[in-house]
Amino acid sequence: MSFSIKRRKLIKAGAASVLVASAATVFLESKNAKKLNNVKFDGNANTTTPIPDKTFEHELAVKDNLQKVKFFNQTFSDDLFLTKEKYTIFQQALKRILRVQKVIGYANFNLVSFDDMILYSNRFPQIGRFTKEELALIDELFFYDANKYGFYGSKVIKDLTSKVSKKETVKIAGSGHYLFYGDALTKFNQLKKDVGPDLILTSGVRSVVKQLQLFLAKLDESKGNLSLASRSLAPPGHSYHGIGDFDVGKKGFGKLNFTAEFSSTDEYKKLIELKYVDLRYTKDNQVGVRYEPWHIKVV
Ligand SMILES: [Zn+2]
């Protein structure tokens, strides 16, 4: 009990520290000065140099955003990074979160809440308690304004400790994933009927913690580049997986299900023709996320 009171205090302290952090830019640093790896623009993006009027500026911003969505895996000059000091703490936190996943299992982890994650870490020595610094960093990441590093989607879950009620979800056999009863489940079942048995669920309901783990793993791959990570994955609190959306794939297609390759499958071709199917992240989305032909909009 005393722990949860303490932690809530810490959360508050963390939220306050975000203000300090953003003012002093200790949380993020732009790597403008550092070498960029292969920033490439296609075609004539660099060939026009008139002084832009307002409309033109807007067009440039849209074009810039679309370039980033297209070349989501490259580094751009205005990308924002974790500071070195935070990077070390972040890696410790990620490792600890992965240990939680190992202890409670992949499927259970999809629904785990922040409070439960803390309880598990306190109970199981093989996980180990989260340090104050790790909790402060998680808090900071959750409450930081993602727009500042180029993610323009909505924050659909505003509470770090929000819980998914297991009763509202159903585990989809053979997938290790859950769907919310209601629109999500109805849509998935209809899709299976209309597309065929090779259509599988590759990711369903994700708690804030699950999204946090995925985002941190992406941040690890991107060497602390928050902008780059957020072009592939919504930051925690910003994922519609938390409130209904889900991902589909083709049986046996493995990791390719999460690449543009998925759009070459018969399953994709069939599903995109269905009137009731909408993709969350289209090729020309203004949210700042790569094209995701596998992500079905439910909400
Ligand atoms: Zn998705």
Label this structure with key terms:
single chain, 299 residues, mainly alpha, Muramoyl-pentapeptide Carboxypeptidase, domain 2, three-stranded antiparallel beta sheet, two-stranded antiparallel sheet, 10 helices, 9% strand, disordered N terminus, binds zinc ion
Please explain how this structure is put together:
Strand 3 and strand 4 form a beta hairpin. The model is unreliable at 1-26 and 30-48 (pLDDT under 50). The protein is mainly α and 299 residues long. It has a three-stranded antiparallel β-sheet with strand order 5-6-7, with helices on one face. It has a two-stranded antiparallel ribbon with strand order 1-2. The radius of gyration is 20 Å and the shape is globular. It has helices at residues 2-24, 54-70, 84-104, 106-109, 114-123, 132-143, 183-195, 208-221, 226-232, 266-272, and strands spanning 28-30, 80-82, 169-172, 177-180, 199-203, 246-250, 295-296. Helix 1 crosses helix 6 (132-143), helix 3 crosses helix 6 and helix 3 (84-104) packs across helix 8. The protein starts with a helix and ends with a strand. The protein has a single domain (80-296), classed as Muramoyl-pentapeptide Carboxypeptidase, domain 2 (2-Layer Sandwich), CATH 3.30.1380. The structure holds zinc ion (ZN). The site of zinc ion has 4 residues, from loops.
